[in-house]
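Progress against Task 2.4 (sequence-to-structure conversion) is shown through the following example record, which the project officer requested during the mid-term review.
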Amino acid sequence: MTAMATDLLACTEFLDHESDAVRRFVARAVPDPGVTPAEKAVALYYAVRDDVFYEVYGTDLSREGLRASAIVTGGLGFCLHKSILYAAAVRSAGIPGRLLVGEVRNHLASERLRKLVGGEVFLHWFNEIELDGRRLRVSPMFNKLLCRLYGIAPLEFDGASDALRHPFDLDGKAHMEFVGEVTEFDDLEYDTALSLMRNRHPGMFADATSVHAGGSLSDEAPRRRGR
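Structure tokens generated for the chain above:
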């Protein structure tokens, strides 16, 4: 394991993988500790993707709310929350992991959410992990139910190649593309992350540390609304 990889196993304020909540989450997802690192990474990917519901409205962006243990306990969050949890979970399993952030166009979103964040280009947080000396980029964000309601196929991960984007929806239309540069963070830099969010999407903040409540991506999905 490289020196860089060793640094990416640390337990931190936000990637608090030594907490009971994160340890229990990992144990449920990977009941057999004897499986390969790739199998652990895959199992944890699906646990984060499907067991933590993807939601933006009303989410907690405080220091306490962005700890992996709090995200497990709350059971929901958007890409920032889920990337924190996945990084903590893979580190708990001995797999180096970090956070990445970039911008995507035509992200999974309702019309109301696009208005709230100011358009169709969104900040998108995701992960990089190291397996067998290779770096893989993965995005365990959109759970199966939400994908079905928005008409896109769930993003799968095989432990051998990147699982990064939903390029097409179920009708074959282009759905999601990355634009601009990607920035790496070995740990969540709280002030930097919140500054990025506020500068890029000022309208989504109800106050200094929370997103406007009173909505649900699931309820606003086109297929749930019969369109």
